[in-house]
């Protein structure tokens, strides 16, 4: 019995009743691309309440792939956009557009500039270029600690029964000869290292205190005798 040949692709015919018109394919493509964005505006009251819970909170910006999130100049998709300054932060001041269920976050930057961002764009950028915690908190805490320590140092120097010249020099971290090791440590802070020198003079204890920048303080029997500067390589 002779076998039937399978039709070549060019010979296959589609029943017109089952063919999908071209305009339907275009519509399907359109809704696949933009349907999510259109549907995203149909928020329920519960969803809007959840979005509004962010009002009053502070967020920080962080560069990702060399870019920052874009913000709008007004609560509209067609509004002009701008990018805030690097390392800026902002507070969400309001959730606008609740009545027509087309919400935008109104924000105010630390620099004073105001802007808007849609909840969709906000959530896309969250934990990437928009952070819920300050990435520079450690640096700020360290700077505040140093500032507090410096203030306490200056106050302590001014409270000592020294002459004005000695106090001014101490504030500039230039301790005068004759000061005790405990006093010098309050003025200069702890040294990087201390070297004890065996003195040929009986009963003379000598110490060299080394500080950043090449400053070396020399003590004899616990009193500052002189300051030297050593070139650092």
Which CATH architecture of the largest domain?
2-Layer Sandwich
CATH first level of the largest domain: Alpha Beta
* Low-pLDDT residue intervals, each spanning 5 or more residues: 23-40
Strand order of the largest sheet: 6-5-4-1-7
Measured between the Cα atoms of the first and last residue, the distance is 99 Å
Rg (CA only): 36 Å
Largest sheet: 5 strands, antiparallel
Q: How many discrete structural domains?
A: 2
Percent of residues in helical segments?
25-40%
What's the number of extended β-strand segments?
11
- Classify the fold: give the CATH topology of the largest domain: Beta-lactamase Inhibitory Protein, Chain:B, domain 1
Determine the mean pLDDT.
Answer: 85
**Count of separate DSSP helical elements:** 6
**Structural shape:** rod-shaped
Give the amount of beta strand, in percent. Answer: 15-25%
Structural class: alpha+beta
SSE arrangement, N to C: HHEEEEEEHEHHHEEEE
Descriptive report:
The protein is of the alpha+beta class and 233 residues long. It folds into two domains: 45-131, SH3 type barrels (Roll); 137-229, Beta-lactamase Inhibitory Protein, Chain:B, domain 1. It contains six helices and eleven strands. Strands 6-5-4-1-7 form a five-stranded antiparallel β-sheet. A four-stranded antiparallel β-sheet has the order 8-9-10-11, with no helix packed on it. Strand 4 and strand 5 (104-109) form a beta hairpin. The chain is rod-shaped.
């Amino acid at each position: 019995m002779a076998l039937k040949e399978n039709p070549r692709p060019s010979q296959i015919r589609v029943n017109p009743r089952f063919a999908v018109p071209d305009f339907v394919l275009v519509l399907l493509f359109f809704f696949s691309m933009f349907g999510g964005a259109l549907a995203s505006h149909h928020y329920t009251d519960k969803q809007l309440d959840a979005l509004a819970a962010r009002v009053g909170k502070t967020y920080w910006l962080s560069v990702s792939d060399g870019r920052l999130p874009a913000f709008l100049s007004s609560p509209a998709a067609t509004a002009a956009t701008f990018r805030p300054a690097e390392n800026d932060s902002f507070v969400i001041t309001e959730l606008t557009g609740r009545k027509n269920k087309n919400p935008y976050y109104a924000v105010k930057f630390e620099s004073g500039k105001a802007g808007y961002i849609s909840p969709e764009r906000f959530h896309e950028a969250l934990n990437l270029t928009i952070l819920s915690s300050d990435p520079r908190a450690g640096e700020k805490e360290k700077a505040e600690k140093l500032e507090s320590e410096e203030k306490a140092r200056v106050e302590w120097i001014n409270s000592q029964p020294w002459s004005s010249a000695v106090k001014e020099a101490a504030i500039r971290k230039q301790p005068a000869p004759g000061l005790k090791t405990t006093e010098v440590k309050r003025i200069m802070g702890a040294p990087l290292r201390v070297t004890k020198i065996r003195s040929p003079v009986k009963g003379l204890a000598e110490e060299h205190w080394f500080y950043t920048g090449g400053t070396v303080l020399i003590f004899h029997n616990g009193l500052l005798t002189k300051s030297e500067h050593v070139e650092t390589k």
